[in-house]
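Quick one, T. Sequence first:
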Amino acid sequence: MDIVCLDMEGVLVPEIWINVAERTGIEELKITTRDEPDYDKLMGNRIRILEENNLTLKDIQNVIAKMGPMEGAFSFLESLRSMTQVVILSDTFTEFANPLMKQLNWPTIWCNSLEVSSEGKILHHKMRLHDGKRKAIQALKQLNYRTFAAGDSYNDLTMIHEADGGCLFRAPDSILKEYPQLKIATTYDDFLSIIKEFLAT
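C-alpha cells:
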C-alpha cells in the first residue's frame, strides 16, 4: 500500500510566519525553513521576537484566521486523497494548523505543539520528535507502506531522501541548486502527475 506525505506551509497553505511578518511589519519573522535549516534556532529566534514585541498566540491566530489554502491546493488534495492515503507532515503546531486543516477538509496532520502562558504568550515550542518527518517516513516503511514525500524547504529534505519516491514543490533556487537530482513541480497539475507516476510503478 502507498502513502503520500506532504509538507504543509509552502505546499498547501502560505507560509504562516511570512503572513505574520507582513501584518506586523517585523521583517525578521520572514525568515523560514527555506532560509534557516536549524528549526530549533529558527523557533528560538521567533519566540524571542514575539516576546520583544509583546505579541501573543492570539495575535498569530488572528493572522491565520484570515489565511486560506493556496490557490488550487484544495482541489489537488481532494484528487490525491481519492487515489491514495495522505498524511501532512509539518513542523508547525496544532495551535496554528487546526483552522487551516478545517479549510482543507480535515486531512490527517502530524505536527508539534506550543507551551503557552496563562497570558497567552508563547514560551517554548515542543517538538514531538526531532527530525520527525524523516522518522515518520521510517515508521511508515516499517509498517510496509511504500512512501512518497514532498515539500519545499530544508526541513523537508530528510523525509524526501528517506522516502521511496519524492519531489520538491516550488522550492527556492538555493535548494534547487544544492539538490539538482530531485524532481521539481511548480504547478499542482505537474505535482499530481509526478505522484501518479510513482503510484503507477
